[in-house]
Write a structure and sequence with these properties.
- The protein starts with 16 loop residues before the first helix and ends in a 5-residue tail after the last helix.
- The model has no long low-confidence stretch (mean pLDDT about 85).
- The chain has two domains: about 35 residues; about 210 residues, MetI-like fold (Orthogonal Bundle).
- It has 14 helices and no strands.
- It has about 300 residues and is mostly helical.
- It comes from Streptomyces resistomycificus.
- This is Sugar ABC transporter permease.
Length: about 300
């Protein structure tokens, strides 16, 4: 009979103290990093969860210490929509945020393109003026601006004093776009000019398709600013309830329902939901655009 010789099993050498220390350190680092991530996620998420759960409580339970609704009162959202003027606030906010975002992006792109790619006398001075405008608080010029729009043009009680200036560019949007456009190699622009494209056609056919992440970041910043703006509507539209936005109308809603915390939280959820959804679907372009703006100065 043929004898099968068993292959001796090689015993694994025990890990050295240095290897055990390195493994222990790697495990502790993994636990520490992920614990901090989970803690940060809970820190930012729990307030939204609390607002959402409170919005689904009854009026009596919302004033108690309960954290979870006994009965899910989805009718609170219907009650908020039935509030006189709430749909008007939605329409005004969409007009303000949508039109303001489009006008800001359209007016800021040519200026940022010129500052990033054109060589002309006074370019650095123009860039410094744009940066200085970013440092100027809006409260400094609110009185002369109000006198101009309200007294000279008689546009008080409307949102047009907030929308029309966006057609002339925004300092922060111009600077952010300029920083992004500097990352686009000049060779693409030179190749387009060799093919016979002028400056405008080069901007439309070459630069804009490559600048989509930066444009998306600027558009989101402007949309969020207009959607959450409380100071501007308070100055120009407070005297006309038909021109109120959600941010300003929500303040009056809280005053009228200061004891109905469930309805107040439901209105808050309806105001926050569009911003969260927009950022959720556009976060990739937003993060990419913000990241690339700092690659090249």
């Amino acid at each position: 009979m043929t004898q099968v010789l068993a292959k001796p099993v090689e015993s694994k050498a025990p890990a050295s103290p240095a290897e055990r220390t390195a493994r222990r350190r790697a495990v502790l680092e993994w636990v520490g990093i992920h614990s901090l991530g989970v803690a940060a996620a809970l820190f930012f998420t729990l307030p939204f969860v609390f607002v959402f759960l409170t919005s689904l409580m009854s009026g009596s339970q919302a004033l108690s210490r309960d954290l979870v609704p006994r009965t899910w009162e989805w009718g609170n959202y219907a009650a908020v929509f039935d509030t006189p003027g709430f749909l008007t606030w939605w329409r005004n906010t969409l007009l303000y945020a949508g039109a303001g975002t489009v006008l800001t992006v359209v007016s800021s792109i040519p200026v940022a393109y010129a500052l990033a790619k054109f060589r002309f006398r006074g370019r650095d001075l123009s860039l410094m003026l744009v940066i200085s405008m970013m440092m100027l608080p809006p409260q400094v010029v609110v009185i002369p601006m109000y006198l101009f729009w309200a007294k000279q043009l008689d546009l008080s009680g409307t949102l047009w004093p907030l929308i029309i200036p966006m057609a002339f560019g925004d300092a922060f949007s111009i600077f952010l776009l300029r920083q992004f456009l500097t990352t686009i190699p000049n060779e693409y622009l030179d190749a387009a000019r060799v093919d016979g494209c002028g400056d405008l056609r080069t901007l439309l056919r070459v630069v804009l398709p490559m600048a989509k992440p930066g444009i998306a970041a600027v558009a989101l910043f402007q949309f969020f600013y207009a959607w959450n703006d409380y100071f501007g509507p308070q100055i120009y539209a407070s005297e006309n309830p038909g021109a109120w936005t959600l941010s300003y109308g929500l303040e009056s809603f809280k005053g009228a329902h200061h004891t109905d915390w469930n309805l107040t939280m439901a209105a808050t959820v309806l105001v926050m939901a569009p911003v969260i959804l927009v950022f959720f679907f556009a976060q990739k372009a937003f993060v990419e655009g913000v990241t690339l703006t700092g690659v090249k100065g």
